[in-house]
Amino acid sequence: MATEENNNSEMIVTPWEVKGKIDYERLIKEFGTQPLTAQLLSRVEKQTDKLHLQLERKIFFSHRDLDTVLDLYDKGTKFVLYTGRGPSGPVHIGHLVPWMFTLHLQQKFKTRLYFQITDDEKYLVGDDRNLKETERWSYENALDLIALGFKPDDTFIIYDTKDIDLFYDITLEVAKRITYSTARSTFGFQDSTNIGWVYWPAIQAAPCFIHKKLTGENVPALIPAAIDQDPYWRVTRDVAQKLGYYKPAQIHCRFLPGLGAGGKMSASMPETSIFTIDMPDVVKKKIWNAFTGGKGTAAEQRKDGADPGICSIFQYYFYLFEEDLKELAERERKCRGGEMLCGECKKDIVEKLNRFLENHRERREKAKDTLEEYHIKRR
Ligand code: TRP
Asked: What one-character-per-residue DSSP string does 120-162 give?
């Protein structure tokens, strides 16, 4: 997920590039996924007591085969969860959004999670990264995952370059059944693309099927992830049944916006991203410089109000930091009416963010003691 732009340029959403203004409805059509309907959400709600905030607010908005997975679950076939991280640098709060939702699913459905850390992918795709560097980020990023509260008994972290022997055979099975022509049109490979990258999609596909090899149980995988990863699942779903597995199911989320004027949070734009390792003064400075829907002067804003619809700060309340819908609506009202100015709203979010991050960092430190317990090879 390399670059990102803030303007209205053409929308591009691939696993390595997200840019332009994202039209999620259009993505559903172009990728051929399904919207999350009210009926499907109510089925999920039945299993989980209460709809998770990210479903309620349509942060997760699209899926493939979630209904099939729930049908199987009703009949007694469980599923496993699978998601992952490309360790290109520190984790920002946008990465945490789908991981938090994954934790919720894991707790409610009592299922196992496979979490793939793709140091190999980040090495192959990045021009100037070396393997030692991506390996180091692998461990650093795993700490962020664990800090969210995942438990070692049912969380299995796969470090690609360390653990490839566990699933190399599965990558071969997959790779043999995807033609170059399909891969090229799905991923946009060029003549100049290195051949490691061309093979690589088989490596992201393999954890969908690893559970059967490890346990003998054939169950589907459900993948909560941002929608940019969808091309991988398209090719994986094409080959799954030929190989005797269920098609992996997906539930797709939106991108957490960055602090600029539009565009997703992206590690390649550090000034508009909040990293989990950012200290309070850094967070404050970034928030203070963030793009809002405010007016040029306080007087003008008191008179005409501001526009939370385009404000990056308001998005953070929406995605993460205001769980109470009534409070959220109240904040929106005060903003539109010019009752609350940007300074106050920013001050609130700085406090919330720093409290959250301080807590996260503490748990992240503690995770250093248990990191090994999560490694797939520990069992
Ligand atoms: N390709 C993903 C990235 O660059 C990492 C990843 C591997 C992943 N397996 C996954 C993401 C499964 C979501 C689901 O970030």
From this structure: HHHHHH-TT--HHHHHHHHHHHHHHHHHTT--GGGEEEEEHHH
Residue with CA nearest ligand 1 atom 5: 85
| Ligand 1, atom 14: closest residue by C-alpha | 83
Going by CA atoms, what residue is nearest to atom 9 of ligand 1? Answer: 84
Report the residue among 88, 95, 115, 118 best suited for mutation to probe ligand 1: largest number of ligand atoms under 8 A from its CB: 118
Q: How far is the CA of 332 from the centre of ligand 1 (A)?
A: 34
CA distance 133 to 148: 24
Report pLDDT for 198.
Answer: 97
pLDDT confidence of residue 8: 54
Q: Distance, CA 324 to ligand 1 centroid (Å)?
A: 31
CATH number of 2-255: 3.40.50.620
Give the closest residue (by CA) to ligand 1 atom 3.
86
Q: Could you tell me the pLDDT band of residue 6, with boundaries at 50, 70 and 90? A: very low
Binding pocket residue ranges, ligand 1, CB within 6 Å: 1, 15, 82-86, 116, 118, 121, 204, 223, 225, 229
Please write the tens of the pLDDT for every residue from 223-278. Answer: 999 999 999 999 999 999 999 999 999 999 999 999 998 788 888 888 999 999 99
Using the atom order of ligand 1, give the atom closest to the CA of residue 16: 4
Residue ranges of domains in the chain: 2-255, 270-366
pLDDT digits 0-9 by tens, 193-209 = 999 999 999 999 999 99
Residue 110 burial class via C-beta count within 10 angstroms: exposed 0-12, middle 13-18, buried 19 and up: exposed
Strand order in the sheet with 60-64: 34-35, 60-64, 249-253, 221-226, 80-85, 113-117, 155-159
Evaluate whether the domain defined by 270-366 bears CATH number 1.10.240.10: yes
The alpha carbon of 84 and the centre of ligand 1 are apart by a number of angstroms equal to 4
Within a 10 A sphere around the Cβ of 242, how many other Cβ atoms? 10
> Is 2's pLDDT higher than 50?
no
Instruction: Of 16-25, 144-153, 199-208, give the lowest mean pLDDT range.
Output: 16-25
Looking at the chain, the whole-number percentage of residues with pLDDT higher than 70 is: 97
